[in-house]
Amino acid sequence: MTPDTGRLGGEPGRSGTMTVALRLAWRQARGGRRHLAALFACVALGVGALVAVGTLGAGLEATLAREAKALLGGDVELRAARPLPADADAALARLAGAGARVVHVRELAGMARAPARGATVLVELKAPSPGYPLYGALVTTPAAPLSSLLADDGAVVERELLDRLGLAIGERLTIGETSLTIRAVLGAEPDRAASLVRLGPRVFLSPAALERARLVSFGSRVRYRALLRLPDGLAAGDTRAELARAIVDPGVRVAAYDEAQPGLRRFFSQLTAYLGLVGLASLLVGGLGVAASVSAFIARQVPTIAALKALGAETRTLVAAYVVQTQVVALAAGLVGAGLGLALQPLLAAALAGLVPFALEARAQPWTIVRAVAMGLATTLLCTWAPLAAVRRVPAWLLLRREVEPSSPARNGVFVVAPVVVGLAMLTLWQAGSLRIGGIFVGASLAALLVLAALARGLTALARRLPRVRGVAWRHGLAALQRPGGHAPRVVVALGIAVTLLVAVALLEGVLGRQIDLEQRREAPSFFFVDVQPDQVDAFAALVARTGGSAPQLTAVVRARLAAIDGERLTRDVVERRRRGEDRRWYFTRDYALTFGDAPPAGNTLTAGRWWTAAEGAGRALASVEETAARELGVRPGSRLTFDVQGVPVDVEVTSVRRVDWQSLTTNFFFVLSPAALAGAPATWVATTRVPATVEPALQNAVVAAFPNVTAIPVRDVLDRVAAVLGDIAVAVRLVASFTVGTGVVVMAGALAATRSQRLYESVVLRTLGATRGVVARAFAVEYGLLGAAAGVGGGALATVLAWALVHWVLDAPWSFDPAPLLVGLAATVALALAVGFLVTFRLLGQKPLPVLRRE
Questions:
Q1: Nearest to 200 by CA among 165, 153, 168
Q2: Which residues contact 128 (CB under 8 A, 6 or more apart)?
């Protein structure tokens, strides 16, 4: 019987092979607890990250589906930026006759003022007709029907408004030109439109009170909504389709409850996808630890493997034993990791709680757990593929000749490595859910892996070529980097990827923070004043100059809707045919703020065509289009556009395309027309001004007191809200990235533990030759510190490239470099490496030399 074909113990057939494999797996597991513990920790952390993110995403989707009618406000919603047209009113009347309940709602921004103190706050107003809400619960304190709370000029407000104005229930509040009595505090609003950045606290008032406030006039930005609760005989989908056919105007959005909050769904789908990739990074980093721990375990088992082969064990039996062993450990680790992810999920939900209009529920999602555990098992199998291939290369004769001819492990060829790379890439695409995003992640991961591995190799080569240095600690620390076993690449790659994620987040926070820092942006205004009427312009400018110390910049604005492109009327069918995606419909259906001028606005650059001369602008109807709008609308110089200005068509010819710096926070426009195009059109004015921060409250209060119809948008307050949103997202990313840090620590600890016997022997030899424990400890510290420094430098460089790419290609914002996160990341990585190295090897320093040398 030959060694490769015989069966150990005479067990016949496949069942016998599996029985032997299970027995061997159990017996050998007892001798490899340390290696299997590292495998366990790596898989558990990776699966934990995936479960935390996956459970969050599944919970969000389930909540959106369950609360869809409440989030929309009805079975079907009609929404427009203008009063609903006659065909919409007729269609709603027919449905009301069939038993449907209809509620009309108007929403707009306005200013709330405390009459006694004169303090003002930007608020979001909502005026619903009787019967609101159709679905969900409007929670107020004290609890009472909304109609009774709003009767006789009552108001329901959020607690934030009371805190900022110093008011209490029962006191008076001024909105526009009317005074309201605060009757209750708003606790929950079922259908508040999802927006990551809200302008201010909510105020409910009656439709009659809104009319008396005189805030709705020409040019006012108002959202008109009609909510329907259908009788049992009418289906929401069929009703939506019927309304879409009956209402020609594409500016009226018709949606059924299963389409509720599409922007919120899209945002959280993308956020959970990116967080999932961050979690996947921890699993992939853990794969390095899995491969290293199994490689070290197999290396220790070489004599045993040779002996078993000499006794007749088949290679496939031995491989099966190790596969079973690692898969069982990975399964147990996956289940523990799932529990860890479920425990972390409430923290993740709390970090994002301010971004959603409902409570996030932490529920175990069976499919999410099964999927994450399956990915952990698959990653373990792929990462043990190459180490287990070494089992086949162990010859039986090594048992007799290992003293004179030790086996040297062969390098893994392309046929061993290729399946691993392809398999991990497929797992990444599965997690990403998008070929494009997954492909980018795979490419970026391979690039990071190669860069960090090359950096580790370079560090080892540099240590080998440096001239002999003085000092025992430095000399032996540098020499230890060349220790057999090649642990430097694993440590640098694992810690480097963790540093990349965390430092990239810090760099992005810094870039965006500087973008929204009003004090650092001297060109940014302190206020936008909206809806200044033509007869108020002179008095308004004088008041701002008197209170703020500088004259405001005033721009005439005409609100209009795009009605036709190149003579083709933009009906609902035409928009559906022309648009390029769900989020692109907005370019065809929104209300545009038009302005006019004889020269391009400051900061705008022409990218196609030419600007009109003063004579052309005074005699012809011409237009310049922002480049993104031009691309989405499919227009270019020479195209003809028709705008609907309060029912009057205005035909213009496009002469140029402009690039607009939207980051400037100044008054920018998608369309700029020639003066002749808007001659005689009714206009309102938008004003901007910059004043010292100490003057901002006084200026806002003075403007609102003198001009109740004018809305003051404080840029500082809005930017603070943006910063809070970015901070919440950054906290969520850091929570998920912490798994990668933990995995990197485990990989480093495993790599150092694998060379424990070598370190112990070096330590006792040095001490025998006269070195103190301090000298040996410093030698180890030099090695650990250099590994941490290499990981910090490589991770910082990759983080800079990653952050720059995101800022340049995704956020389309100007890049600014701050070295502080890189320095902090480098110092933290070195400190972490020293701490982990000390914890792994400090017991070696207490070993007495004589017993160790006798064992050798």
A1: 165
A2: 103, 104, 105, 146, 204, 207
Distance, CA of 572 to CA of 240 (rounded, Å): 13
Which residue type does 407 have?
S
CA angle (24, 26, 31) in 5-degree steps: 95
> Quick check: 51 and 341 in contact, CB under 8 A?
yes
Regarding predicted confidence, which is higher, 70 or 358? 70
CB 45 within 8 A of CB 233: no
Residue 265, both tokens: 């769904």
Cα separation of 802 and 804, whole Å? Answer: 5
Give one DSSP letter per residue of 305-347, joined into a string. HHHHHHTT--HHHHHHHHHHHHHHHHHHHHHHHHHHHHHHHHH
Spatial separation of the C-alpha atoms in residues 345 and 758, rounded to whole Å: 42
Q: What is the 3-state secondary structure (H, E, C) of 780-817?
A: HHHHHHHHHHHHHHHHHHHHHHHHHHHHHHHCCCCCCC
Largest CA distance in the chain: 107
Reduced to 3 DSSP states, what percent helix, strand and coil does the chain have, rounded to the nearest 5?
A: 60, 15, 25
Phi (first) and psi of residue 223, to 5 degrees: -100, 120
How many residues does the structure list for the chain? 856
- SS3 assignment, position 533: coil
pLDDT over 80 at 17, yes or no: no
pLDDT value of position 155: 93
Could you tell me where the DSSP H helices lie in 634-714? 696-706
Do residues 783 and 480 make contact, with C-beta atoms less than 8 angstroms apart? yes
Work out the burial of residue 439: count CB atoms within 10 Å of its CB; fewer than 13 is exposed, 13-18 middle, 19 or more buried.
Answer: middle
Query: Using an 8 Å Cβ cutoff, are 415 and 422 in contact?
Result: no
The reported pLDDT for the residue numbered 29 is 56
Residues 592-618 as b or e (16 or more Cβ within 10 Å = b): bbbbbbeeebeebebebbebbeeeebe
Q: Which amino acid is at 621?
A: A
283 and 50 in contact (C-beta within 8 Å)? Answer: yes
Rounded distance between C-alpha atoms, residue 335 and residue 339, angstroms: 6
3-state secondary structure of 420: helix
Distances from the Cα of 789 to the Cα of 198, 436, 703, 720, 827, angstroms: 43, 34, 57, 36, 8
Three-class SS of residue 773? helix
Task: Supply the pTM of this predicted model.
Answer: 0.74
Close Cβ partners of 254 (under 8 Å, ≥ 6 residues apart) = 76, 77, 78, 240, 243, 244, 247
Question: What is the C-alpha to C-alpha distance for residues 243 and 749, in angstroms, rounded to an integer?
Answer: 64
- Residue with the two structure tokens 């070295």: 819
For the record, the structure tokens of 203 come out as 């105020």
Q: Where are the alpha helices (DSSP H) in 535-608?
A: 537-548, 572-578, 586-589
Query: 450-500, pLDDT tens digit by residue?
Result: 888 888 888 888 877 777 667 777 777 777 777 665 677 778 888 888 888
**Strand 591-596 to strand 671-673: parallel, antiparallel, or no bridges (unpaired)?**
parallel
Lowest mean pLDDT among 150-154, 638-642, 661-665, 790-794: 661-665
Per-residue H/E/C for 63-117: HHHHCHHHHHCCCEEEEECCCCCHHHHHHHHHHHHCCCEEEEEEEEEEEEECCCC
Helix, strand, or coil here: 710?
coil
The per-residue pLDDT for 661 is: 80
Summarised one tens digit per residue, pLDDT across range 150-184 is 998 999 999 999 999 998 999 999 998 899 999 99
Could you tell me which of 721, 589, 572, 569 has the C-alpha nearest to residue 642?
Answer: 569
Q: DSSP for 244-292?
A: HHH---TTSEEEEGGG--HHHHHHHHHHHHHHHHHHHHHHHHHHHHHHH
Q: Collect all residues with Cβ–Cβ distance below 8 Å to 635 and sequence separation of at least 6.
A: 565, 566, 625, 641, 654
Tokens 């995003």 map to which residue? 437
